[in-house]
Amino acid sequence: MSETIDAPAAAPVLGTRWEHGFAALGPAFFTDLRPTPLPAPYLVSRNAALARSLGLDPARLESAEAVTALTGNSVPEGSRPLASVYSGHQFGVWAGQLGDGRAILLGGIETPLGVQELQLKGSGLTPYSRMGDGRAVLRSSIREYLGSEAMHGLGVPTTRALMVTGSDQPVRREEVETAAVVTRVAPSFVRFGHFEHFSARERYDELRQLADYVIDKFYPECRATEKFTGNAYATFLEQVSERTAAMVAQWQATGFCHGVMNTDNMSILGLTIDYGPFQFLDAFDPNHICNHSDDAGRYAYNRQPNVAYWNLFCLGQALLPLIGEQELALAALESYKTVFPRELEARMRAKLGLADEQPGDRELIEGVLKLLAAGRVDYPIFWRRLSHFVGGAGVDSLRDLFLDRQGFDGWLRLYEARLPADRHAAAVAMLSINPKYVLRNHLCELAIRQAKLKDYSGVETLLRLVQSPFDEHPGDEDKAGFPPDWAAHIEISCSS
What we know:
- The chain is an alpha+beta fold and 496 residues long.
- The protein contains 16 helices and 13 strands.
- It folds into three domains: 18-188, no CATH class; 193-346, no CATH class; 359-496, no CATH class.
- The chain has helices at residues 48-53, 64-69, 138-153, 192-200, 204-218, 232-254, 304-323, 326-334, 336-351, 361-375, 379-390, 396-399, 405-418, 423-431, 441-452, 457-467; strands at residues 18-19, 30-32, 42-46, 82-84, 87-90, 93-97, 103-111, 114-121, 136-137, 160-172, 176-186, 256-257, 279-280.
- It is globular.
- 47% of the residues are buried.
């Protein structure tokens, strides 16, 4: 009689080793709770490239087990679901206690990229939902899924998205829509608002505990520096300021509008986080407001750098009980004012194909931006055509973008005189930084319309394009053209 040998059990979809560093902070920082299940969940899209980077099997993410777990209908073995509490300033006004109102952190998994936390956005009510329903809709989930991957493809620091699942459960926003959950991935989801929460309540032991956790895990060099007389908390504030400055410089160079830069939407790691009413610029308008809810234009494109500094100032105020001296906190913030313009100018020079810094570069950059603004020239198309022009293409398609041809011709003469001798090398470099494909609002809108009919091919096409936006992708040229007239009437708000 032959012996029966049981086959080994398949490894869990998300791996077997979880890390719960944030949960170790204790109950003052979060509430333990399970996600609220959704009826009959289904897969909308999974991010195979990110899955492989995390050491996960993309095919396993298509399984019923993965869909169930990453919708919140089951709790993965080894995870510890929780919603964290934080506070913050919203549209410049202190809003008091906020928190994860529709997001639940499962914990961190060990990956080739280091420990990465998984968070389910849209997974149901939490103690911090306030007047919300704890849900996300298919529309907003697709936007975040594609938006975060578009930013990653462009090289901008960002949270990422592993998966979107959907359900036919109705959710009311401006109209009745259907529910969805997006799995977000980041080393940490700690925000400026976490620090504001404990500082505002004068809970300084918890404030120090949180700061020590973040410093030891993500900013250990702060312990060794002699700057600020060995004050690790001042050094921490300086490093957060510098990371934030570099990130916002990339936003501006890329033409990215966040839309709702509240302090609770600012990552302590200098990552782009919370993709709501975001937009990549079509026509270049420095005053563009992408958030339909932003009546005063607080978060307009050209105001983002100053708002980021304002938010950092709020973080500095929150950390002041640990830093000890106001002068030290102000000194720690000061580097933002040098890092941001330096980083932005370096990125704009790179977009122009200028490898080194020379006198007159700032005037050259400001000159072309003024021309772009005056003619409301399409921002991504201009830079891509300029790249091809430097590589030897004709000038007519570039000049045709401008109403003020004489003004552009004058700028172009100055620019050509500044170009390096090896224009081919410059063009190659420019084509690697000026994308052909940008996640424009109308492209998202078309993919969302298809997805509402259970056709996810548009989502998959955009995911492929935004993950390698500098490639040519023959056959997809229609996704790199000018937006249609109706795109100007798309409205995105804080519910997006």
